[in-house]
Specification:
about 120 residues, 6 helices, about 75% helix
């Protein structure tokens, strides 16, 4: 149980709040998880949490903020080849699909990075 601390509780709470449709509270809990997670020890979980946070931000209409969060997630995912990380990036690309045709630079750049990540880990 050493690994289930404040960050884990915040992550699980955020997932529940997100699934209930309370995106504002989910955002706060995901942010708390990101702030309190020992990233050197739990790098993959930290990256996935950032992916989830970005998805909630995008669903809330804050696409620029989501792109920043997702970019940070991709930075953290460097070298991580887990199924959860891959799924977070697939979900990221799905969330970006609504914005691809709008010519938003941050969306285009992030989508390209996400595609490259998936190409590298899906070999």
């Amino acid at each position: 149980m050493f690994f289930f601390g404040e960050a884990s509780l915040a992550h699980e709470s955020a997932c529940t709040l997100r699934d209930m449709g309370d995106l504002a509270s989910a955002t706060k809990e995901f942010q708390r998880s990101v702030r309190t997670r020992k990233t050197a020890t739990f790098t993959r979980t930290h990256a996935v949490t950032l992916g989830y946070l970005g998805a909630v931000q995008a669903r809330s209409g804050s696409i620029e903020e989501a792109c920043g969060t997702w970019s940070e997630a991709l930075d953290v995912m460097d070298g991580i080849h887990s199924g959860r990380a891959r799924q977070a990036v697939r979900d990221m690309r799905s969330g970006l699909s609504v914005y691809r045709a709008k010519g938003i630079h941050s969306v285009t750049e992030l989508d390209g990075r996400a595609a490259r990540y998936l190409a590298a880990v899906d070999r």
